[in-house]
Each structure stands twice: as structure tokens, then as C-alpha cells.
Specification:
The protein is α+β, with helices and mostly antiparallel strands. About 15% of the residues lie in helices and about 25% in strands. It is built from 1 helix and 3 strands. It has one helix spanning about 40-55, and strands at about 30-40, 55-60, 75-85. It is flat, with a radius of gyration of 14 Å.
Length: about 90
């Protein structure tokens, strides 16, 4: 999705309903990241999250969201890649 400079993704439908917008605190320092996973089902989304959590400190999600009329599920987790917890993928 191309959004004009300074544009708000929410105005363009880029924020999944039920998911809060990414706040400044989530990406306030180098090494902090927000990862949005889109997958065909819950099992796949949680498997991706588990892979990320095995490598980096992760604030995990306990549920996925669905957007009526759109395929698949969405899941958001927060990473701190400064804290290397596991072997490289």
C-alpha cells in the first residue's frame, strides 16, 4: 500500500479493525519492533510467533483477529531484538 508522506494508514484501511495503532513507545528505541503476521489460520500465525519468540524477547499475542470479508487471520507481537535469546534462524 502506498500512502502519501505523512499519510495515516488508518485513513487508508491499513490498520486492522480490533488492532490498536502502533504507538511511539513500541518503536521508541533501536532494536524494538512491531511484527504484524497475516496467515491463513490461527495455527500458522502462532507458529510464526513461536519462531520469533524462540529467537528474541517477544511480547506474544494470545489471540488472532479476523477482518470480515478478508481471508485469513492477523496477529501482532512486539520484539526486542537487542535481547538475543536463541540460535540464528
Amino acid at each position: 500500500m502506498n500512502v502519501p508522506a505523512g499519510g495515516n494508514l488508518q485513513e487508508h484501511g491499513g490498520v486492522v479493525p480490533g488492532m490498536k495503532p502502533i504507538s511511539e513507545a513500541h518503536v521508541a528505541q533501536p532494536g524494538l519492533a512491531v511484527v504484524d503476521v497475516a496467515a491463513c489460520d490461527d495455527q500458522t500465525a502462532f507458529a510464526v510467533q513461536e519462531l520469533l519468540a524462540g529467537r528474541w524477547a517477544t511480547a506474544s499475542a494470545d489471540r488472532t483477529t479476523r477482518v470480515p470479508g478478508e481471508p485469513g487471520v492477523r496477529l501482532r507481537c512486539y520484539l526486542d531484538v537487542r535481547q538475543d535469546l536463541g540460535p540464528q534462524l
